[in-house]
Amino acid sequence: MGGTPPDLESLRLLTLVAELGSLGQAAERMRISQPAASKRLTMLERRLGLTLVDRSSRGSALTTEGKAVCQWSDRVLSEMESLMAGVAALRADQDDDLRLASSMTLAEHFVPRWIGALRQRSPDVRVSLRVTNSEQAAALAAGGQIGVGFIEAPTVPPGLCSRQVGADRLVVVVAPDHPWVRRRRPIEPAELARTPLIVREPGSGTRETLERILAGIDVEPARPLMVLDSNAAMRAAVAAGVGPAVLSVITVREDLAEGRVREVPVAGVNLNRRLRAVWARGSRPAGAAELLLGIASQRLPDVDTAA
Amino acid sequence: MGGTPPDLESLRLLTLVAELGSLGQAAERMRISQPAASKRLTMLERRLGLTLVDRSSRGSALTTEGKAVCQWSDRVLSEMESLMAGVAALRADQDDDLRLASSMTLAEHFVPRWIGALRQRSPDVRVSLRVTNSEQAAALAAGGQIGVGFIEAPTVPPGLCSRQVGADRLVVVVAPDHPWVRRRRPIEPAELARTPLIVREPGSGTRETLERILAGIDVEPARPLMVLDSNAAMRAAVAAGVGPAVLSVITVREDLAEGRVREVPVAGVNLNRRLRAVWARGSRPAGAAELLLGIASQRLPDVDTAA
DNA sequence: CCCGCCCATAACCGCAGATTATTACGTCAT
DNA sequence: ATGACGTAATAATCTGCGGTTATGGGCGGG
């Protein structure tokens, strides 16, 4: 009764049944035969141990439970679509209409979604994406190799125009059993600077922002406890109790919500930062690039920037 | 070259390789043989058209592209985990330690995640969930049939204690080609009240909140244009141009971000509302219920409540 | 130098999931 | 009534994905 995760095709089928109100039509939309769809759905219900649809002789409607599962499925499928959009962009490395580069954080959470939205509206544009760090992305934008770059650096490098596409905040995180969790008052920046931390590699926007903050303090910063080149690795290291780290709240939102790591307040420094789209001064984005910028800034991501 | 979506097992394998640094160890963790893992990964790379891992004779490390895909995969897998947690809770309808009921909106976006976090920490608690509307959930809580209910009603029904677990805002949304999109000034509440709208069924928190707002205006409200009992159906109807609707910003965030629907500002009414956990007065949540409440309110969801 | 760990390839096989053909059930129009 | 058209379920069959075991080939450390 452990419950094996269902495959995405079945979930997609469920959403189609919800949308079209008929199992056969859903089957047609998926380019499979009607019996196949029927069996799949039965199989899905057996796997989940739930009755998802009411079959009547003039159509099928979702049960209450079916609706709930359908909504959760939508989210899974949506993430998968983002993944596919990202992959398509990673793959098309030439012969493309719009070249992008992005820092890790932005690439992880936003860029694939924007690309997906762009492709929905103009499906024929070829988009390519390079995932690097903020420094590299800015350099590529300045050099004209890409149309638009997405960076999270504290300042806009010279020679670039920019537009804000989101907001972010750095947080100090530790494992739930770390002594800092029990503190009653925020820690002081000086103490943070003296503590060996898990940090990203030089050139990353996160690292650079951190250094800029600690540079303002009259304390010799401690040597890094560990240098990692991916946010996921850092999250795992923090949760495993290796030590404290400073990370974008976006990347650890889930870990925080589920209690795998804890946030430690810091006194008196502004850890907010802006996420920006950048492009070479003089070459105003046009066509696909313009459209993408519109999508990206049309609705700024909701981020908790409050203390 | 359309690109078939990969199966979740392969994505999981990728994340395990990233975590463990070795294909063989990842295979072991997944309870499959090493050759199977090797073949799967090769297959995945062929499917996506990308080189994801650098195989060396003393381990495997992800390429830059591999890291990006791995992060996107994490999100897909995380949503699937939520789905499974939700399904497990829907299924266990008796013989359980903690009974929950939730409105649609909360059930869609938050409750499965909280349940998942709860199960991670104490895997042996049996949780059950009923998905209804706010009115029903509150009634179940008041009647003692459930331990905790999650509602989005504007007021706390009598006889219940509550605790805020999130914030939300209602928005007026229309299709991108609706005349309201072109307006330069916010629409007046009276005009909204006079317009036939797509609404949820009576008893839903969304409907109730809307009626409470429109009741404050000295205008006879128009009859509904269409009554639907699921947020997804409303989103589809709005996007299809059926008419305007008033929905939780949470449910339409993606549609807004990707331009499928547009938000129409409303003048002079407060559309914010609180998402609450409720329980019967007198029976303070204990045990699993207490833990879940802690998880839910430990970190309030980041929601854009600003105008 | 050989033994360990890593990964890839080969040959085999079982089962999930597709197909077509057929049955059964309701609704509606004639 | 009755047949036409929609719905979905069942039966029989087959293909191929994804698993297994067995084996071979680099590379590093004791």
Automatic annotation (TrEMBL), chains A, B:
<dbReference type="InterPro" id="IPR036388">
    <property type="entry name" value="WH-like_DNA-bd_sf"/>
</dbReference>
<keyword id="KW-0238">DNA-binding</keyword>
<dbReference type="GO" id="GO:0000976">
    <property type="term" value="F:transcription cis-regulatory region binding"/>
</dbReference>
<protein>
    <submittedName>
        <fullName>LysR family transcriptional regulator</fullName>
    </submittedName>
</protein>
<feature type="domain" description="HTH lysR-type">
    <location>
        <begin position="6"/>
        <end position="63"/>
    </location>
</feature>
<dbReference type="InterPro" id="IPR005119">
    <property type="entry name" value="LysR_subst-bd"/>
</dbReference>
<dbReference type="InterPro" id="IPR000847">
    <property type="entry name" value="LysR_HTH_N"/>
</dbReference>
<comment type="similarity">
    <text>Belongs to the LysR transcriptional regulatory family.</text>
</comment>
<dbReference type="Pfam" id="PF03466">
    <property type="entry name" value="LysR_substrate"/>
</dbReference>
<keyword id="KW-0805">Transcription regulation</keyword>
<dbReference type="GO" id="GO:0003700">
    <property type="term" value="F:DNA-binding transcription factor activity"/>
</dbReference>
<dbReference type="Pfam" id="PF00126">
    <property type="entry name" value="HTH_1"/>
</dbReference>
<dbReference type="InterPro" id="IPR036390">
    <property type="entry name" value="WH_DNA-bd_sf"/>
</dbReference>
<keyword id="KW-0804">Transcription</keyword>
